[in-house]
Every structure is written in C-alpha cells, then in structure tokens.
Specification:
heterodimer; A: 257 residues; alpha/beta; Glutaconate Coenzyme A-transferase; ten-stranded mixed sheet; 7 helices; 21% strand; globular; B: 306 residues; 2 domains; nine-stranded mixed sheet; three-stranded antiparallel sheet; 12 helices
Chain lengths: 257, 306
Amino acid sequence: MAMADYSPSEFMIASSASALAGEKVVFVGVGLPGVACNLARRTVAPEIEMVYESGVFGARPARSPLSIGDPTLVSGAALACSQNDLFMNYLQAGRIQVAFLGAAQVDRFGNLNSTVIGDYHKPKVRLPGSGGACEIAIHAQKVFLIMRLKKRAFVEKLDFLTSPGHLTGKAGEREALGIPGSGPQLLVSDMGIFNFDGKTGEMTLTGLRPGVSVEQVQDEISWTLKISPDLKDADAPSSEQLRIIREQLDPKGIYSK
Amino acid sequence: MKVISMKEAISEYVQDGSTIAIEGFTAFICFSAAHEIIRRGIKDLTLCRMTPDLIYDQMVAAGCARKMVFSYLGNPGVGPLYCIRRAVEKGIPRELEVEEYSHFGMNCRYMAGAARLPFFPLRSYLGDELSRVNPKIKFVESPYDAKPIAVVPPLNPDVAIIHAQRADAMGNTQAWGLLGSQKEVAFAADHLVVVVEEIVDESVIRSDPNRTIIPNLVVDAVVHQPYGAYPSYVQGYYDRDNEFYLNWDRLSRDEGETRAWLDEWVHGVKDWEEYLEKLQEQEPDIWQRLSPGEAYSEPVNYGEYK
C-alpha cells in the first residue's frame, strides 16, 4: 500500500480498534475513540458494549455522535440511566474493561493533565478539568491513551496532575494508594504506538507508523524516549477498516481526515 | 396548581447572591431560565453545574456570576468555553471564583445534598491533585477497613431549575433520555422550578409512574416553556442545534461580539417567546431541521388490580 493511502487519524482509529480485539465493555469518548470503538464492534469485537459517561450502556448510535451527550446514543441503547448510576455501579464498581483518555499534557508515566497550563490559581490557560477523566484513570481495568504527538503535549513535567497514570513509576504505587485499575497500557499516536513497561511504567515506543522514523517521534517528545528492543512497523489500516471508516462511520471525514 | 410563568419563577426564586443549579448533561439545559436571569440583571450568583456548557458561559459573560462549582468546562464536542476562560484567566467581566470537582464528585455532592447526609464517600481523588486545590475534598478513615476514602460535602442549592419533557400541573415530572443528575439536584435544592415542554393531564403521568423522576412533593413551581432548552436538546422533541454551538465557539472568542450577541438576543427581546420568533425569522425551517423524527417505545402493561 502506498504511503498516502490513509491519514494519520485513520491510523489512530484503526490501531485503537485493533487493540480492542476480544474486549467486552469499553468506555467511549467522542471523536477518534468513538469512531475506533464503533469500528471495533464491526470488526474485531462484535460483542463489545459501548458505555458513555453521560449515562448510556450498550449504545448503538445511528449517526456519528457530536458529543458524549448526543441523543443518538440513547435511541436504541440497551440502557439509559442517571450519571450516579453510571459512575457508581459501572465505573467505580470496576465493570469497565477499557477506557480511552486523552489530555493536553501527558508525561512519560502516562499521567495526564486536562486542568490548567501554568499555575492552578493563576492559570495561563484554563483547560476543561477532570470531568470523568480522573475516575476513569482510577477505575477502568485498562486505559488506552489516544493523543497526537506534540512536544508541548508530551512533557517532562505536568503543570497539573488531573488523572493518574503510573505516577512516579515505582512498582506498586497505584495499589498502595488504593487505585484499583491497572492504568495506561497503550498510547496510540499519529506517528506510532507505545506500551507502558510492566515494571517501570514508562512509555515505550513499540511500533512506528509506516514511513515514520524514530527521530521524527523523538522530536515531538520532551524527554529521552524509551524504545522497545522489538520495535517494528505498526500495522497499516486494512482496506476493510478504511472502507468501514469512510463509508459508514465518518463519511464526512470529520474525525478521520 | 403550581404553573407560573418564567418571569414569575425567576423573580420569586432567584435573587442576587443566590446559589443556583440549572442542571442537565448536554440534554435538558434550560437556556430559557438563564436568559431571564440575565435580562433581570441578577448578579453575584454561585452557579453549580457539572458541565457549565454554553448556558453558564453566557451567564458569566453577562456578569451574573461570582463563583462557579463544576466538574468539566467545555463546549461539548466543540471546544473550550471562552467567556469562562476570560473570567478565570483575566477577570473579564469580573473575577470568577472556581470550586472544582470530578464528575462523580459533583454527583456525590448532589446525592449527599438530596439525602441530607453530612458527606458522601467515593473512591476518587487518588494520586491526582484536585484534593490539593479544593480543600472541600477530604479523606476519612473507613470505620470498616481502616483505609482512607475520599468524601465530599452536600451541595444544597437555594434553587434548582430542571428541564424535562412533561409534567402535570402539580409538578409530577417525567423525563427520558440522558437523566444526568436531574433527580438528585431536584431533591438536593431548597426550592425547585421544573420547566417542561408540555403540561399533561395527571392521568398521563399516572399511566406510567416509573417514568416519573421528580414528584410534586419537591416541586415549587412548574413553567411551561416549549423549546425552553434550545439550543441544547430534549430527547424526542428537538435535537441539539450544533450550528449554534459551533457559532458560539467562533463569536465567544471575542468579548465585544459576545456582548453584542447578548444585547441582541437576550436583552433585545422581552421573553423566550420573542426569542423563538426571532430565531424563526432568521431561519424559518429551524424546527424542521432539528426535528428528531419518531421512535416510540413499546407500551407496557401495569395491570389493573381491583
């Protein structure tokens, strides 16, 4: 396949969807994760139940949702409930297997900032804040991060820690704080795929988007990147994945262009 | 009968300095109440909402707010809330104090408020910094396993304003779709105004009691305001006007443009009916464009036990 056959966003969607193979319960966000989950349901994870923090279990959206509170998520869903119900009995109870998160800043241990740039009390940029992100980072059994590589987003030190990843990378740190979920396991970016080292919790480059070099990736990351000894080219999106994205899930190319 | 007009409801229940919650997660956001508050020039409000959305962006831009209690500041699916950012970052049009939680933290505050509990425990705020910047988030030792657990205090707004599909004239209120924290904030507030698309006969409510989320017991007033949640949506009645949300993203970046919008569309009309007329003059087919079509549920049999 020639290099220009798919966009970086389509690479992110297809890679995220492939990573959902066999999963049963996913907490979905809007945008790329939403398209990825719908793609997974049509391909590698037909039984997957999509859960939205707005209070929906088993969504079957007939159109691409414009927000996590889009009414298309309710029509045809298995269940619509209050947010107390959703956060308490689904997320906090540990019933979510995988959740997608992104943020304005991430550090090498997958900790996330979506609160402020600058000082909290005198912010240079006031960002949205946690929403459900802090709870998702704590309670989802696994977290998949989905973010475009940018030096100002992949930072040495966060301006604020909104959602815990692997904290300082010490073994057992999350458990010691009483955090039930296992934290970030995967980061899908527009230039490559990263895992988090099981011992050190550190983000590790494991797959390059075909045509991208290690140097290009390092250029967009503020710390000296850890590279897997088994680094290889990541899978390009399959023609079947691309067909479903373009024909069914995002025909206008809002998220995938 | 508790049915009154929006003007009467706001005049009766919202004063300078009140703590109010106009809830609704993306859905059921009662902009008609917010516009009346702005028109009346009510100020120094403490605004509580999980997602301030465009409704509090407009109220903050209009100078109504002193403080905001919230968990996510965003234009859903679109981008930031520029008016609130101007207030927090630059004190325009005035300083805005913020008290910040996560979504579940806000839910738990409403739950404690609804049940008149001293606090609500939740397994959040572990490893993150929110509890460092918000001293109201505390940790206690569980009496059962001696481990620490986060707690948040009750939130009991002076008044909550809740939008829904329908109610009877006594205030028994039915809603379907994304229920957010509507029920909890309704029970938490000292006073409750319910705003509905339709007032229906009591027999309609009583034919489907499981769909009633708020009983007349906690309702002070019912306002009949069709399209009262525009540009947000009401499940089965009208869709969100995403064009409006995108347009707000553009115009709200500029303080002057925002002010001009408020002057024209809020101060420049006398009530919600006039606002709707103006909308329809601008776009005659607006309600066709936002019509959701039909997808009825199957009726259920409650039985007739005599």
